[in-house]
Amino acid sequence: MWIVLFIIALALITTIGRWKTYEKAGYPGYHAIIPFLADYVWLKMGDLSGWWAWFFVLFVYYARSIYKAQYYFGPTISMTVGLLLLIVELVLHAVISFRVAKKFDYNYAFGIGLFLFYPIFIMILGFEDHEYRGEKPDYYI
Known about the structure:
The protein is mainly α. It contains six helices and no strands. It has one domain.
């Protein structure tokens, strides 16, 4: 029971922090609660193109289909592919965290914190008085 409440509280804290961070960057805050749009805006804040969002969508689909691939290719190949995809995803999340931290005029240490302890550091990003130094959108998505 306590674990469920902890997970709900963590999700709520993360959503509030992301909402405030998006508003600081010039995007509407409600983009933080729309699943694929939230990732798209996060990538745009890190100066990555929108095509990376399609990569993440395909990655999630492919990662879920790995379990089905065990029956066709055997567990060794599917586990190897799954591990490689996990490593690629972690590297990309680290790169995005570093880029977003730089856009808010933080150093790489903050980027590491944003990558490892996302709920805490997204709240810092949203509620501290550092301004977004990136390109503000002139239209909403």
